[in-house]
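During the first year of the project, the team set up a workflow for recording each protein of interest as an amino acid sequence followed immediately by a discrete structure-token representation. This format lets reviewers and collaborators read both layers of information side by side without switching files. As required by the reporting guidelines, we include two representative entries from the current panel. The first entry is reproduced here exactly as it appears in our internal archive.
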Amino acid sequence: MDRDAKWRGIAGQRRVLADLLAGLDDEQWARPSLCAQWRIKDVAAHVAFPPQSPGIVHILAKGLRRCGDLQAVNRDLAITHAAARSPAALVAELRTLADSRRKPAITTLDNLLFDTLVHVQDVAVPLGLPVAMPLDAAREGAERVWRMGWPFWARRRLHGLHLSATDVDWSAGEGVEVRGPIQALLLLLTGRTAAALPQLTGPGMTQLADTTTSS
């Protein structure tokens, strides 16, 4: 995917999320998402936030207060953004800012792409509302997460497994095979193992289950 295609993919997922959220009641907005310690409303705020992100100085100051824990900084920013807005306002932001190409100073376009894809699933899966990832974008996301280390450490966590997508041309790792749709593999790579497992098959499933139990 070229740069424009990646931005179009992000815009499309923001709109998908807005449509998904628009019909929710208060109880659904308050449900836990797949993302640990985040409610569905917090995830929605996180996806709506990048075009409105503060400057690098503000983010670094928060990082210092959190002893360099950028995951905690992300969570704090999302929760604060969610607390200041109604559900309807968050849906409106996602739609109004869908095409914005502004991003936080501490991330990259490739990271923003997979982040948006996965967070849509963080909302959709707990609600039991299937949402298909665009295949090209999901493949790009899987490749990016496999290459990176922190915060997912996918290569280390899934050592000894060969991951193989059944719907696109993508594979990674060496060992016993685990195969499934690229969407499920991206969830696995980003630590959403319980959500991914029902869609995966192959001789590596026993080792994957052992890895999940011991981690």
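The second entry, processed by the same pipeline in the following quarter, appears below.
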Amino acid sequence: MDGAQQGTGRGRFLVLEGIDGCGKSTQAQRLFETLEERAAAAGRPGPVHLREPGSTALGERLRELLLDGEAEIGAAGEVLLFAAARRQLLSERVAPALTEGRDVVCERFHPSTLAYQAHAGELEFDAVLALLMEWAGEPMPELCVVLEVDPEHAAGRRVGEGDRIEARGLEYQERVGEGFRRCIEQLDWVVGVSGEGDVDEVAARVLEEVDRDA
């Protein structure tokens, strides 16, 4: 944490991203636990672990509609629903936690919408980014770490039938992976690390990026 952050006591907003099956939830939990230990040792408020869409009453209802529902929703409609869930999450959970000096670890944010709905869904990337920044752009993450995993390998990690987006198949996930690489290349707050290897190896890579950005 830099001097300005120490002075205000403001928390850090950190995001874990990647294609389905990349290990994002596992690594978000590992990062949360590390930050929790550090906060306790420093006598600071503990971190918050959130998922997106979700972690609010509205977000959970929209999550059910977007991921588990049977409704036919086009890519543009998905963008707007994800943006609504994200706006509520930022206002209700993220901003208050940061003000309290709590770090926030969130699973998914703008890069998911850009990778899944804009790139893989063949929408205009810059237009989707502009919409997200206008309606769900504050507070913004200090850092987003994308776990880069071969889509075929990631597919082998998943169990069950998956949600309505996971069910779109390997070719779709490959396009999503391309979308995440585009985010890494174009957005200065997004970095990629290899998600291959055991959990401890990946956790070390994630933490290295988190500490480098501090």
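For the second entry, the following points were noted during internal review. The mean pLDDT is 92. The beta strands are 13-17, 48-51, 104-107, 143-148, 190-194. Both points are flagged for discussion at the upcoming steering committee meeting.
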